[in-house]
Design brief:
Blueprint: H1 2-13, H2 21-24, H3 40-54, E1 62-66, E2 77-81, H4 87-97, H5 105-124, H6 130-136, E3 146-147, H7 169-181, H8 187-190, H9 196-210, H10 233-245, H11 254-260, E4 261-262, H12 273-292, H13 296-313, E5 316-317, H14 321-342, E6 345-346
Parallel strand pairs: 1-2
Antiparallel strand pairs: 3-6, 4-5
Helix pairs in contact: 3-5, 5-7, 7-9, 12-13, 12-14
C-alpha cells in the first residue's frame, strides 16, 4: 500500500509528463518541480564522488538542476540541465535540439568530470598559482565570443567535442583535469610526446598536494536553480537555437553542388537532389556532427540550406545513390572543417 501511494504521488508530481510538446513548452522551469533525488543523475553524481574519493580528494562539488551545464565563476559547484532528470524532458530536448547533451551515461560522466574540474579549481583557487598561469594561461582573461580550434594541436588534451580545451585557459584546465580523473585513463601513454602531457603531470602533482585537504572555498551557494527560473521552455529553446546559429557559416557555392548533382535535362527522370538529401539527412547530420564535433542542430540548418538551394537549381542525381551519399557526406564534412579551421567557432557556455 505504501509503495502504491509513493508511485501515485510521483505520477501526480510530474503531471506535465503526459502533455503534448506544444503545451509542455508553455510551462516555466519552476513549474516542473524537479529534483536530482531518485534519478539516474543521483547515481552518476555518486560515481563522480567515488572517483574523487579514490584519489583521496575530500572535495565533493555540490550539484543542482538548472537550465544548462555550467560551473559558476568562483563557486565550487555544478549546475546540471533539467532535461536529464526526466525521460519526457529528454524527449523534448531531442525534438527541439536533435540531440541530448550528456544524454548517455558515458557522455554525462565526461561532462561531470569537466565541470568538476572547474569546481575544484574554484574551491582551491588553483588558478592563482604561478605554474597554473604558465601552463594554461590567465584564468581572468575574458572569454572570447568565438575561438579558432586547431584540431591537430598536441598542446591540448582531447576530451569534450569541438576541441573545447582550446576555448579558454579555464576550459583547458577543466579538460585536463577530466582526462586525469577518468578511471583507467592511461593518460601518460595516450599523451606521450604531446605538449599536453606537461599539463597532465602538473594536474597530477596538484591533486597529490591537495589530497586529504579541505578546500578554502566552501560556499554552498547555487546559481540559477531550476526552482527559481521563471523562463518558459518555449523561450528557453528559442534562445538556445539562436545562440547556436549566431555564426557566419561559409556560403555553399553553386559550383560545389553542381559537382554532386546536375540540372542537365538528360537526368530529368532521376530522383531530385532535394528529395534524396531529405531522406539521408538524419544520417548525414549525425555523421558530420560526430566527425567534426559541431552541434547536430547547426549541421541540420546547413543541410536545410543545401536542400533549399538544390530545389531552386532544379538539381537531380547523376550517379548512384550510394556514390552520391559518400560525395554529399564528404562535401558537408569538408565545408564544416573549413569553417572550424577559419575560426569563429562560437563558445557556447
Amino acid at each position: 500500500m505504501a509503495s502504491s501511494s509513493v508511485s501515485h504521488r510521483r505520477r501526480s508530481r510530474f503531471w506535465w509528463a503526459r502533455l503534448p510538446d506544444e503545451k509542455l513548452l508553455d510551462l516555466r522551469f519552476r513549474d516542473l518541480n524537479l529534483t536530482i533525488k531518485r534519478t539516474d543523475l543521483e547515481e552518476q553524481i555518486g560515481r563522480l564522488y567515488r572517483e574523487l574519493d579514490r584519489r583521496q580528494i575530500l572535495f565533493h562539488p555540490r550539484c543542482w538542476l538548472s537550465n544548462e551545464w555550467f560551473s559558476p565563476d568562483g563557486k565550487p559547484g555544478i549546475a546540471i540541465p533539467f532535461y536529464l532528470a526526466h525521460d519526457r524532458l529528454r524527449d523534448l530536448e531531442r525534438q527541439q535540439m536533435l540531440e541530448v547533451e550528456g544524454g548517455t551515461r558515458a557522455w554525462c560522466m565526461r561532462i561531470l568530470r569537466h565541470e568538476c574540474g572547474h569546481a575544484i579549481d574554484n574551491a582551491f583557487r588553483l588558478h592563482r598559482r604561478k605554474r597554473y598561469r604558465q601552463l594554461f594561461g590567465s584564468y581572468t582573461q575574458p572569454y572570447p565570443e568565438s575561438y579558432q580550434p586547431r584540431p591537430f594541436s598536441k598542446s591540448y588534451v582531447v576530451h569534450l567535442d569541438m576541441w573545447y580545451a582550446q576555448a579558454h585557459p579555464a576550459e583547458d584546465f577543466a579538460e585536463t583535469f577530466a582526462v586525469w580523473l577518468r578511471p583507467s585513463s592511461r593518460w601518460r601513454q595516450t599523451y606521450e610526446g604531446w605538449g599536453a602531457l606537461r599539463k597532465l603531470e602538473y594536474v597530477d602533482e596538484l591533486m597529490a598536494e591537495i589530497a586529504g585537504q579541505r578546500p578554502p572555498v566552501t560556499s554552498r551557494q547555487v546559481v540559477d536553480p531550476l526552482r527559481q527560473l521563471t523562463t518558459s521552455l518555449r523561450e528557453h529553446y528559442r534562445n538556445k537555437r539562436m545562440t547556436y546559429l549566431d555564426e557566419d557559416w561559409p556560403e555553399f557555392f553553386d559550383t560545389d553542388l553542381h559537382k554532386l548533382f546536375s540540372s542537365d535535362p538528360k537526368y530529368r527522370r532521376n530522383r531530385t537532389a532535394a528529395s534524396f538529401l531529405r531522406r539521408i539527412k538524419p544520417d548525414l547530420r549525425k555523421m558530420v556532427s560526430r566527425w567534426t564535433g559541431e552541434y547536430q542542430y547547426v549541421v541540420e540548418q546547413v543541410l536545410v540550406d543545401i536542400i533549399d538551394r538544390c530545389q531552386e537549381l532544379k538539381l537531380r542525381l547523376m550517379r548512384s545513390p550510394q556514390r552520391t551519399f559518400i560525395d554529399a557526406l564528404t562535401m558537408v564534412t569538408v565545408q564544416t572543417m573549413n569553417y572550424l579551421h577559419e575560426g569563429n567557432h562560437r563558445v557556447v557556455l
